[in-house]
Design goal:
extended; 62 residues; 32% helix
Length: 62
C-alpha cells in the first residue's frame, strides 16, 4: 500500500518482563532489523521529554 505508515514509539529501558532487557525488547529489535532500510529512521532522545511536554499541553488545553 502506497499510503501506509507505521510509527513505533517507546522507551527501550521501560521493561516489565524479567525475560526482556533494554537490549532485546521489541522496540530495539524493530529498530535494529530495519536500520538498513532506506525507508526507515530511528530517533533516539537521551532525555525524557514527556513531562515537560505534558505540562505545556495541560497549560494550553482549554
Amino acid at each position: 500500500m502506497k499510503a501506509s505508515k507505521v510509527v513505533a514509539i517507546g522507551d527501550p529501558t521501560q521493561i516489565y518482563n524479567p525475560k526482556v532487557t533494554s537490549y532485546n525488547n521489541g522496540l530495539v529489535s524493530l529498530s535494529e532489523n530495519m536500520k538498513t532500510s532506506q525507508r526507515t529512521a530511528t530517533i533516539y532522545m537521551p532525555q525524557c521529554e514527556r513531562w515537560g511536554l505534558l505540562n505545556e499541553m495541560m497549560k494550553l488545553w482549554p
